[in-house]
């Protein structure tokens, strides 16, 4: 057995299998945004899930090692933008760890200044964080939705570590 083979443990194999399985789960792509001082900040997320209708509540998961986790707390107001097929570049940008001020040119929309919302998205939610539940290396973030607006259109999808969009069935 080579040194490299000997270094791969069952835990490594499980972690890789876990990542491979979830790479097969096709998802819509959202960006969670918020004001960090005077600066727009945010991160790309596929973990957005609807939790409750009464009250309207969603969750997303955020890595505890991220800049966003360090900036979010109970009471923070966040904007959630469901990206459209043409917004792949924005998804890539918000998936990088960029310094404060790096998102100043991103076009925003909406009258609610408590949370930024990305222009041209398929749908927007404004939500107040009610609870952050640390779990493993991430935290589950529960948010109460205070405004919801759908525009519709073709979605940006993520599957098998690549971007896609829908093709109508013939
Ligand atoms: C398609 C896609 C989906 C992602 N989904 C999540 C997610 O749900 N939660 C998360 O914490 N990070 C997710 N990430 C990674 C973050 O976007 C990335 O770590 C980002 O750099 C964090 O930025 P920050 O450190 O400035 O907060 C995703 C990345 C991509 C490309």
Automatic annotation (TrEMBL):
Flavin reductase like domain ranges (all copies): 22-165
SUPFAM superfamilies per UniProt: FMN-binding split barrel
Gene3D superfamilies hit by this protein: Electron Transport, Fmn-binding Protein, Chain A
UniProt cross-references to InterPro entries, sorted A to Z: Flavin_Rdtase-like_dom, NADH-dep_flavin_reductase, Split_barrel_FMN-bd
Keywords linked to the UniProt accession: Oxidoreductase
Highest taxon listed in the record's lineage: Bacteria
Name used for this protein in its record: Flavin reductase
The organism of origin for this protein: Bradyrhizobium aeschynomenes
């Amino acid at each position: 057995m080579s040194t490299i083979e000997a270094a791969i443990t069952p835990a490594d194999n499980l972690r890789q299998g876990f990542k491979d399985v979830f790479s097969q789960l096709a998802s819509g792509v959202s960006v969670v945004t918020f004001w960090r001082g005077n600066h727009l900040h945010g991160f790309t997320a596929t973990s957005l899930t609807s939790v409750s209708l009464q009250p309207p509540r969603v969750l997303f998961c955020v890595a505890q090692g991220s800049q966003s986790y360090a900036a979010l707390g109970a009471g923070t107001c966040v904007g959630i933008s469901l990206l459209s097929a043409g917004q792949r570049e924005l998804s890539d940008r918000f998936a990088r760890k960029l310094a404060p001020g790096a998102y100043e040119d991103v076009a925003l929309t909406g009258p609610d200044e408590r949370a930024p919302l990305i222009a041209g998205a398929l749908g927007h939610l404004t939500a107040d964080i009610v609870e952050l539940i640390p779990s493993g290396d991430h935290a589950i973030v529960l948010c109460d939705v205070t405004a919801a607006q759908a525009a519709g259109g073709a979605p940006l999808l993520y599957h098998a570590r690549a971007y896609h969009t829908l093709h109508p069935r013939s």
